[in-house]
Specification:
The chain folds into 2 domains: about 5-65, Multidrug-efflux Transporter Regulator, Chain: A, Domain 2; about 80-140. With about 150 residues, the chain is an all-alpha fold. The two termini are about 40 Å apart. It is built from 6 helices and no strands.
Length: about 150
């Protein structure tokens, strides 16, 4: 496998890493990935370590880490800083749990509003629209649609 991931052009590198070329360039601009030197009269070449790094970044993004947080994780990538990495993960877990709480509250409020809409007959005003305009009571019972926490 190692031989197939050495001496890659940027297009082959992007394909091996499962991203597009613009993602590679973006990561380089953000400092997540170094740009290899360009030999005179030739093109830049990438290798297996570059592919592994991009896959690392993509995996961290899927877990919800921001690019700034990923830069911190990359600083710890030698694997000997488990305590520091754990602290970053604990902080991310707290954020995710907060977002889940917000989403559950939003789900409950929307569920009540949908049920109220389905129960409405005739030419009465729509409970969803009325609640969003501040006229309804469904959102005022502790199930306010609050903005999601950062």
């Amino acid at each position: 496998m190692k031989n197939s991931l050495e001496n890659l052009t940027i297009g082959a590198f992007a394909k091996a890493a499962g991203v597009n070329v613009e993602t590679i360039r973006f990561y380089q601009r953000k400092g997540l990935l170094s740009e290899p030197g360009k030999p005179p009269g030739s093109i830049r070449r990438y290798g297996e370590t570059d592919v592994i790094r991009v896959r690392f970044v993509k995996s961290a993004q899927r877990l919800g880490f921001s690019l700034d947080e990923i830069i911190e994780l990359l600083r710890l990538e030698d694997g000997t800083h488990c305590v520091e990495a754990s602290k970053l993960a604990e902080h991310k877990l707290t954020d995710v749990r907060g977002k889940l709480t917000d989403l559950k509250r939003m789900e409950a409020a929307l569920s009540r509003l949908v049920c109220a809409c389905h129960a409405t007959t005739g030419n009465i005003s729509c409970p969803l629209i009325a609640s969003l305009q501040g006229e309804g009571e469904l959102l005022e019972t502790g199930a306010m649609l609050a903005p999601m926490s950062d």
